[in-house]
Amino acid sequence: MVNVPKTRRTYCKGKDCKKHTQHKVTQYKAGKASLFAQGKRRYDRKQSGYGGQTKPVFHKKAKTTKKVVLRLECTSCKTKA
C-alpha cells in the first residue's frame, strides 16, 4: 500500500471549472468479475468434467508490484478523472 494524500490541488477539465481546484483522491479497485461474461462461460464449460486444466497457466511473473492507479474527483463540480 502506498501513502497517498487524501486531497490534491490539480487542473479540473469539467465544463464548470476549467481551472485548478481541490480534488479528492481515491485508489482504483477492479470490480467483481461477472460469472456470465462470455469468456467465463466458455472457460467454465471447457473446465467441467474430466481432463484437468485446459488452458495454459502463466508462471513467469516478472514484476513484484503493480502501479497504483489514482482516481481524482473534483470537490466543486464532482467531475471524475
Quick structural summary:
GO terms for molecular function: structural constituent of ribosome. With 81 residues, the protein is α+β, with helices and mostly antiparallel strands.
SSE layout and pairing:
Layout: E1 7-12, E2 19-27, H1 38-47, E3 70-74
Antiparallel strand pairs: 1-2, 2-3
Properties at a glance:
single chain; 81 residues; alpha+beta; Nuclear Transport Factor 2, Chain: A; three-stranded antiparallel β-sheet; 12% helix; Ribosomal_zn-bd; 60S ribosomal protein L44
Overview of the molecule:
By secondary structure, the chain is an alpha+beta fold. The chain has a domain of 43 residues: Nuclear Transport Factor 2, Chain: A, CATH 3.10.450.80. It is 12% helix and 25% strand. The protein has one helix and three strands, in the order ββαβ. A three-stranded antiparallel sheet has the order 1-2-3, with no helix packed on it. It starts with 6 loop residues before the first strand and ends in a 7-residue tail after the last strand. The mean pLDDT is 94.
Strand content: 15-25%
- The CATH topology label of the domain at 1-29 and 67-80 is Nuclear Transport Factor 2, Chain: A
Class by SSE composition? alpha+beta
What series of H and E elements makes up the topology? Answer: EEHE
Rg on CA atoms, Å:
21 Å
**Major sheet attributes:** 3 strands, antiparallel
Averaged pLDDT: 94
Task: Indicate the percent of residues in helices.
Answer: 10-25%
Strand line-up of the largest beta sheet: 1-2-3
Assigned CATH architecture of the domain at 1-29 and 67-80: Roll
Unreliable runs, pLDDT <50, ≥5 residues? none
Q: Between the first and last Cα atoms, what is the distance in angstroms?
A: 21 Å
* Alpha plus pi helix count: 1
CATH class of the domain at 1-29 and 67-80: Alpha Beta
- Characterize the overall form: elongated
Number of strands: 3
Keywords: Ribonucleoprotein, Ribosomal protein
GO molecular function, one term: structural constituent of ribosome
InterPro entries: Ribosomal_eL44, Ribosomal_LSU_eL42, Ribosomal_zn-bd
Protein name: 60S ribosomal protein L44
